[in-house]
Design brief:
It is a single chain. It contains four helices and 13 strands. The protein is an alpha+beta fold. The chain has one domain. A six-stranded antiparallel sheet has the order 1-13-3-11-7-6. The radius of gyration is 19 Å and the shape is globular.
Length: 270
């Protein structure tokens, strides 16, 4: 049954009222984008460095407190990510909850990424832009059909990586795609906003629990480039102290509750 304009307007008004109340509870304002170029990471803080070639994937484990910088040092390229709690793959990255709890699809400095258990998996400690996609996910064999030749895609990369981790394709959650400027227009259609991309873009994520992660470096399905142009991406795993007044842990009421859930999980061992 089709909905009337009045019903749609009433639903929107209810949502906007809930959003207004949620945003009013935010105790701290979020900062603007991180500076470009990124500040150098101290050599003694670096745990590992890797370059992910175009079309390929990389998997790793992160200990709580480890940070990960994903940087576009060689030009634009979308990087999709999935993650699970280390040793308990039933807890995984949950983008719908991440969006719902923070009242925004924006992935920006000061935000956090939630698991499906209401706990914080990652803090976004640096982000040079908000040109990231938490709605569509990564490429598939079908979306790559527009390219000439045999090209790798994110879905198959995740399946290969999951198998090596002892997981199945059903264990793969929705992917967050960094450096993919996807937005939604007034009619609810996805669109690609190339103007939101920033040369030298990068993000830094801090693990807030022990994690298994997979990154896939493949063109996004909405990328209008007719060529399969996935540039190498630099990944740096490092560890630095967490400040007592850390922004991500207190920027929003939802983040505060998420970190409380993390603390209870550590105490209860669940």
């Amino acid at each position: 049954m089709s909905r009337t304009a009045e019903q749609i307007a009433a639903d929107r008004a209810r949502y906007e009222e809930h959003q207004r109340k949620g945003l009013q509870n935010a105790p701290r304002a979020l900062p603007g984008p991180s500076a470009v170029p990124a500040a150098p990471i101290a050599a003694d803080a670096i745990l590992h460095r890797e370059t992910i070639p175009g079309g390929w994937y990389w998997s790793s484990t992160l200990k709580a407190g480890d940070s990960l910088r994903i940087a576009q040092d060689s030009g634009p390229s979308a990087v999709a990510m999935v993650a699970w709690r280390l040793g308990e793959s039933s807890e995984r990255l949950n983008l719908p909850d991440t969006i719902k709890l923070q009242w925004t699809t924006g992935v920006a400095k000061g935000r956090v990424l939630f698991s499906d258990m209401g706990r914080v998996m990652f803090s976004i400690t640096e982000a040079a832009s908000a040109a990231h996609d938490g709605l569509m996910g990564g490429s598939t064999a079908a979306s790559n059909a527009r390219y000439a030749g045999d090209t790798r895609n994110t879905r198959d990369n995740f399946i290969l990586a999951a198998g090596k981790l002892g997981l199945d394709r059903r264990d793969i959650p929705s992917a967050l795609s960094f450096f993919a400027p996807v937005r939604v227009d007034e009619e609810g259609h996805f669109m690609w906003r190339e103007d939101l991309r920033r040369p030298g873009d990068y993000v830094e994520l801090r693990a807030e629990m022990d994690l298994s992660i997979v990154l896939s470096n493949c063109p996004h399905p909405l990328d209008p480039n007719p060529d399969y142009a996935a540039n190498p991406v630099a990944v740096t795993q490092f560890r630095v102290p967490v400040a007592a007044d850390d922004l991500c842990r207190s920027a929003t009421a939802e983040a505060v509750r998420g970190f409380e859930n993390n603390a209870m999980q550590l105490v209860g061992g669940r």
